[in-house]
Amino acid sequence: MIWKIAKKELLLNLVTFKFTVGTILCVVLMAVFTFILLKDYQQRLEYYNQAVADDAAELRKARVYKNIRPIIYRRPEVLSIFSEGLEKRLGNSVKIDLENVPEIKSKYLEKNPLLVIFPTLDISLIFEIMLSILALMIAYDTVSGEREQGTLKLILSGTISRHQILIGKLWAGMITLVIPITIAFMVVLLILCLPPSVKLKDSDWAAITMMYVVSLIYISAIYNFGIFISCSTKKSATSLMFVLLFWIILALLIPNISISLAREFCVPEPIEKTDKQVAARHEAKRPYVRCCSVRGFKAGWSIRVRSAAALPEGRGGTSWLNWPRHQSCKSR
After folding, report:
1. How far is CA 64 from the centre of its chain?
2. Residue 296's pLDDT band (boundaries 50, 70, 90)?
């Protein structure tokens, strides 16, 4: 009996106008966003390869280790197409210098720092907005709509129980929502597999599978709450009003309020204090100048690291570059 109810609800959901429009709109937006994000990923990957090649060329020109200033670049993640997160906000390069504390720099923030205020446009945003609305639109009149039409009393007049009706409707709604989610993921993966520059590893496939499972859990939770509202109201119009209010709170208010509350309860330390602490630790760990001997004046300088006690008197605070060439340190 549960399967008969689920089959009836599934067929009714598939022929509705809201399901057809929601599925087509979701798939089209996913395809368009994937092309745009894929182009952005290819540009960042090209910048990364060019920067690594330029830095390697600069390192080959260096003849003294002290003059080497390597720059470490972070390779862009291909999964940023699904969820960008902090991919562009954490920085993409670090310059290693013996005299300075390494600092992460981001080319993205230098262009427009105000972009961090707005949410990132990625595939997870499509799921958060489009599929959540589709789930609520399918669920809001599942029970209240039949109550208004009088078909719910007709069904309950038989031998079927209420929990069987509810389970059947839940199954039908979940199967209905699995269809657009699966089609959208297949379209995205098909677009990602087309260019040769995108190479998905085994860990990437595992992460994509986890995203798919989490998306199903998220949509099922939204759909279950819509069923709850539909069961708690007598009219579908009232149910629609409550589900829209719930979606506004879930998708708009909670993300923005959580950021404000985090800033109120977790106040970060001033940047000046943090810089002073980093500078103090850096000065404490700065190595002393240690030298033993200078040999081969004509052939070139040969420096050997020895104890600081081996330095000549009065030379403890000077650099070895300022020593007279005829002087030397004690050797072990």
Report:
1. 40
2. very low
